[in-house]
Design goal:
Blueprint lengths: L6 H15 L9 H7 L2 H15 L4 H4 L5 H6 L6 H14 L5 H5 L2 H11 L18 H5 L21 H6 L6 H9 L4
Helix pairs in contact: 1-6, 3-8
């Protein structure tokens, strides 16, 4: 859902592409900070569940942590502070790839839990993925590929960029090296 259907996620991705088009310097969140920030969405989800259970009259207000309504449902025709909040995330998206989706979105937290409960590892990997090849780790905008090449399915948005490149003999480093040696990978 997050990588394909969410309209606010799409707006963030468009903002990111616009930022790159305008040559705005991109911020690459360090692995250490990224690993800490990923827990924020679970805190937000827990808070929303707590509000729904213990203070249901505040649920509608608490749900405003998600800027979807402001940006998509009412197309920014709201009080200024709701608009400012949604615009903040879109502006941040120009320099940090999908910051809201990756670090704050409560639905993203639910999807991450689903990623932890998956039945199998469905994205193919080679033995060389992660050691020595770090190509997909570097290219993954979601930072969902570990240094050892393993996919962190709870953080993977299923953009399928790594799947697309996996059998591409012009992008996949192990395949390129195998072609140079005339060996089978």
């Amino acid at each position: 859902f997050c990588g394909w259907l969410c309209p606010f996620g799409a707006l963030q991705e468009f903002a990111h592409h616009l930022g790159r088009l305008l040559r705005i310097p991109q911020i690459k969140v360090s692995d250490r900070l990224d690993s800490h920030l990923k827990w924020v969405k679970f805190l937000v989800l827990g808070t929303l569940i707590g509000v729904a259970l213990f203070a249901p009259s505040y649920s509608v207000k608490a749900a405003e942590v998600e800027p979807f309504k402001t940006a998509i449902s009412v197309f920014f025709v709201r009080n200024w502070y709701y608009v400012a909040y949604a615009v903040f995330w879109l502006l941040l998206g120009m320099v940090i790839f999908k910051g809201f989706c990756r670090y704050v979105c409560p639905l993203g937290a639910v999807m991450a839990i689903g990623g932890l409960l998956r039945g199998r590892n469905w994205i193919e990997r080679r033995e060389a993925c992660g050691s020595p090849c770090q190509l997909f780790k570097v290219r993954c905008n979601y930072n969902a590929i570990e240094k050892d090449g393993a996919i962190s399915y709870s953080e993977c948005f299923q953009c399928l960029d790594c799947v697309q490149s996996f059998d591409d003999r012009k992008q996949c480093v192990p395949l390129i090296l195998a072609d140079r040696k005339g060996a089978k990978p």
